[in-house]
Request: fold
Amino acid sequence: MKKLLGVGVFALSVAVAGSALAADGAAIFKSKCAACHGAEGQGTAMAPAFKGNEFIKKSSVADISLVVKNGRAGAEKKYKQFAIAMPAQKTMSDEDIHAVVEFEKTLAGK
Ligand code: HEC
Reply:
């Protein structure tokens, strides 16, 4: 019985550790990105959707992270239908950017 309990606790802590990373990206997305890109990444009148987004699906995490870190403005802008630029996220750590980009990839459908 004691042994069984130990296995249960171990499985539980693995499950919690596993979801913590995903939760981070989701939490960052919610607080820093969702206002423009939509709560479910569906896009808004201000910014493009991540759902089904080919750039997010096909680009490496490193390439997407560069867009998040440096933003995309002026002549670099890809979507002329959105008046504003993608603001550079200069204060975000590389770990946070990485986590949020992984989360975006799940929104895009990989
Ligand atoms: C103030 C509104 C705003 C916020 C906040 C914002 N974005 Fe953006 N984002 C944009 C706009 C507008 C574009 C489109 C830029 C363009 O025309 O190329 C964009 C583009 C992008 C792209 C490129 C998409 C593509 O199809 O090329 C990525 C990736 C991205 N944003 C990630 C993020 C992440 C991650 C966050 C949160 C940390 C975030 N954005 C927060 C407005 C925003």
In short: The radius of gyration is 17 Å. Residues 31 and 69 are 16 Å apart (CA to CA). Residues 32-33, 35-37, 46-48, 53, 55, 64, 67-68, 72, 77-79, 82, 84-87, 89, 100, 104 surround heme C (CB under 6 Å).
